[in-house]
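Let us practice reading a record.
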Amino acid sequence: MNIARPLVSALILLASLASGGCASQPPLKTVDHLDLDRYLGRWYVIAHIPYWLEQGKVASYDSYARRPDGRLQNDFTFRRERLDAPEETWKGTARVVNTQSNAEWAVQFVWPFTASYLVIDLDPDYRWAVIGHPSRRLLWVLARERQLDEATYQAILRRAAAQGYQPDQVRKVPQPAD
């Protein structure tokens, strides 16, 4: 595999996100508290605001685990274009930036660049979560199961809109049926 293409792609993405959020909107509000032990594990990507690094990725999920050095392992697994394509994984790390809430992370897939990861909505039973970025150009709806019922999904989009997101930009990610 040629590492140069993903590296250049990640560098361009991170540079474009470094400009931060929109000055006309207040900062995103994260959840008050995230229990890291309950949050660890696998989260399926139900929907996102598409960007070029995730184009053509289907059946995608994130996995989070504690590392001995205190950071978190953050792996992104996906298939290209087809649900029956082989799985690929990008390995990353994350560190908690706000230790009072645990809801603000810095995620790194390519050193030395990091991206903000903000948990802005979370099911009380940790069945689904919504991840935002200060720029509001990125959003992910994650769930413990491959599918999320439509009423819950629509309620999530309404709350994201209240935080300044454009729901019409969010697209579902194809996942295999359970």
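A brief commentary: The two ends are 31 Å apart (CA to CA).
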